[in-house]
Amino acid sequence: MMETKMNNEICFRRFGTMLDCSRNAVPTVSFIKNWIDITADLGYNTLMLYTEDTYEVDDHPYFGYMRGRYTQEELKEVDAYAISKGMELIPCIQTLAHLDAIVRWPAYWDHVDRDNILLAGDEAVYELIEKMFASLAKCFTSRIVNIGMDEAYMIGRGKYYDLHGDSNRSQVLINHLKKVSEIGSRYGFRFIMWSDMFYRLATGEKYNVNAKISDDIKKQIPDNVELIYWDYRPTDKERYDALLKSHQQIKDDTWFAGGLWMWSGFAPHNIHSIKATAAALKSCKEHGVKDVILTMWGDNGAECSKFSMMPSLFYASEVAKGNTCMAEIKEKFKEKYGISFERFMLLDLPDTPNDVKGEIVNADKYLLYNDCFTGLLDSTIKGGENKQYAACARKLGLLKKNPQWGYLFATQQALCEVLAVKAELGVKTRQVYAAGNKEELKDLIAEYKILQKKLKYFHKAFQQQWFMDNKPHGFDVQDIRLGGLMTRVKSCEERLQALYEGKIDCIEELEEVQLDYGPIIHRWSRMVTVNIV
Predict the structure, then answer these.
(1) How many CB atoms lie within 10 A of CB 488?
(2) CB of 313 within 8 A of CB of 295?
(3) Parallel, antiparallel, or unpaired for β 117-118 and 112-114?
(4) Domains, the chain, ranges and CATH?
(5) Tally of CB atoms within 10 A around 513
(6) Is the per-residue pLDDT at 2 higher than 60?
(7) Residue 163 pLDDT > 70, yes or no?
(8) Closest among 495, 413, 482, 407 to 452, alpha carbons compared
(9) Which residues face 17 on adjacent strands?
(10) String of b and e for 162-183 (b: at least 16 CB within 10 Å)?
(11) How does DSSP classify residue 77?
(12) pTM, whole model, 2 decimals?
């Protein structure tokens, strides 16, 4: 029998969410206030805002330039609102890597080791970091800052190597951490940081349960710095157990960050998120973890609305209160929001190619952008996908008039209607081309015309969703991607028409033998064409 416990108190000291405000989408102030209302009502007491460069830093006009950065007044407003709702607002920044957006500007070229990594040991870098802390100190009441430092895989391998030669990269990381914590402490801050680089520098892997972090490195981690163990994919509790134990041997009071999966495409992955969260929270409770954050990233475009994760968000809050009875959780969800848990989960696009048990698959994105002629991902098509998306569109359409959440269902319905035409279109195009049947070719051209109309409708629905949640900055990326797709579909249609009329005698892309692309990928630039460098 599933354990259940009636309780309204969260069992963790801090239990919160982290909103990605840097990967293309920057939520509006009104959205964040609404998010605070909804999460506080569920018992969450912490909110992190992940801002790589999307916050105002004095004397640095290119920091967040044209990116929708928050002004200091906006952050003060959000901070005051969070306090009024009993919620701690914690800044989550980057002081080492993941600073892709600023390194494009000549003003920061001298600050870079390589890629998106700041140059450790450089005084100009520490002057910039001091300005970051000065800005945060004016805007946030909390004196905890997440200073990032994750995934700096090539630290010490670029300009640092040119200046200092081959170095112990773990020591380079520690020396940089010491300097950052020293600067921030002058503003009264304490720090948390993602822990993965300690493991990667020791073993070459993000998290190896057999990693041996040297005692010398452990001793050098500043007292005012705590580690965050982050893991989003596993659904087996044993992995969380092993790595929490490993972290607690490095530093007491390790935080944990799980993931509510909304960063692989237009559709959420509540099913996987719930499974992973169930295992992670159970492990956190058993290992005495006091501080838990559920991250909501926006990798590669941030197409998915954060509100699409409501089932996972609600489930996690109930588990944190001791309630693990799914039937009861679903009943409470419907009572609170006036829509059934199962219906909200339709946003996951069940019974479509997205629905692969135990995996994170983003067919909603890669089949949308998969080229109709080159068809890099046509090898994933098994047949029947068009009908599956059409059936899903019909179900989603029944919910698009919901007064609170209808816009989410309207967007996904429009997307599924596109995929009900496009998913198999590349495969069909090759079949018709190979057959050389004029009537079939004429019918195929008609499908391309229908697809163009559906793409325009989807663009409008998606645009409405975006501006309900986010600042306008970042939708330029969506306009470029979807506009390019619409232009490409029109171009393909015109060439098929020319073939039909005998103006050309072949389409060269369709003459080439297709190869299996390999592992399914999540980045737009890798799925749309091989001609992007």
Answers:
(1) 16
(2) no
(3) antiparallel
(4) 14-306 (3.20.20.80), 362-527 (1.20.120.670)
(5) 4
(6) no
(7) yes
(8) 482
(9) 47, 294
(10) eeeeebebbebbbebbebbbeb
(11) H
(12) 0.96
